[in-house]
Amino acid sequence: MPRFNCLRQLLPLLALICLLPACSSTPSYNPTVFPYEIEQQRIDTQNIRTVVIAHVNLGLPSRTYLEKEAPRIDTQVSAYLKENGYKVLPQREFEQRWNKAVRAYGDPVDPTTGKVNMKTFSQIMVNVRDEMRGLGLDAFVFTDLVELETAFSGGLQHLARWDGVTRKPGLQGPGDGVTADFDWNMLVAVASLQVSIYDMDLQRVFASRGGLDATEAIDTRSSSGRYIRRRQILENDSYIREGIELAFYPFIATDNWPGKP
Asked: What torsion do the CA atoms of 71, 215, 189, 197 make, to the nearest 10 degrees?
């Protein structure tokens, strides 16, 4: 009987020990996290607190089907910045001044090639910066939606990892599986959020990238096996949130960082 009572007393403790790993919020290590660049001393010196999100890409224009999702992503980026104590000026303040400068200097994006004339881009940004000084602005935030290629692993779970995230393949079509000889080494298109922050001297103080989701799914109608573009792009809000947190780290700290500090 004493031995039984001792065991009964230990049961609650054993149950608690078993629950501890499940309660841990530490994310799994992911070696694909983007090698961010940050000028922390410059950020601290300038006390960046008021920002505006540019409606244009810093680099090449996004794919058309990604560009359509950009306003929705920017809305979530704005909410994330505000959650972390930043004041976010209305995007129209940037857009109005950008459009005005484009009329003066010309469009920096060549519509036939999609290439960006960085000299024209810089002239426009200097003009926009000068126009927005009176609004108390500290920095410009560029949020480019970029598309990359990766592959799902050949293991049992078939996971893809890029820019700090881990995603499973999606299916599109009437079926609910793939053939046994599906080529898992085939490259699939994926999207990431690329963040670049420039201060009022137009010096870059931060740059990084966070993975979002695959923009292609497995076509279950194909007997040979192939990927096709998803009908719904970047519809998972939790995936978007994860990508935003990764893209802004360590400009904004997060407990969900899966890389080495």
From this structure: 20
Q: Is the preceding peptide bond at 250 cis, omega within 30 degrees of 0?
A: yes
pLDDT of 26: 60
**How confident is the model at residue 10, as a pLDDT?**
38
From 187, 183, 194, 182, select the one nearest 150 (Cα to Cα): 187
In angstroms, the CA 252 to CA 117 distance is: 31
In this prediction, residue 180 carries a pLDDT of: 78
Query: What is 9-50 written as a DSSP string?
Result: HHHHHHHHHHHHHHH--PPPP-TT----EE-HHHHHHHT--E
Task: Specify whether the CB–CB gap between 244 and 53 falls below 8 A.
Answer: no
140 - beta bridge partners? 52, 198
Which residues, in sequence order, are bridge partners of residue 165?
Answer: 162
User: What is the per-residue pLDDT for 113?
Assistant: 87
Q: What are the strands, taking DSSP E only, across 135-183?
A: 139-150, 160-162, 165-167, 171-172
Structural contact between residues 153 and 164, judged by C-beta atoms closer than 8 angstroms: no
Which amino acid is residue 127, in one-letter code? N
Angle formed at CA 149 by CA 143 and CA 155, multiple of 5 degrees: 125
| DSSP string for residues in 85-143 | T-EEE-HHHHHHHHHHHHHHH--SB-TTT--B-HHHHHHHHHHHHHHHGGGT--EEEEE
Residue 92 CB contacts under 8 Å (≥ 6 apart), including other chains: none
* pLDDT recorded at residue 3: 45
Which regions in the chain score pLDDT beneath 70?
A: 1-26
Q: How many degrees, rounded to 5, is the angle at CA 117 between CA 111 and CA 118? A: 145
pTM of the model: 0.88
The reported pLDDT for the residue numbered 62 is 95
Q: Is 8 strand, coil or helix?
A: helix
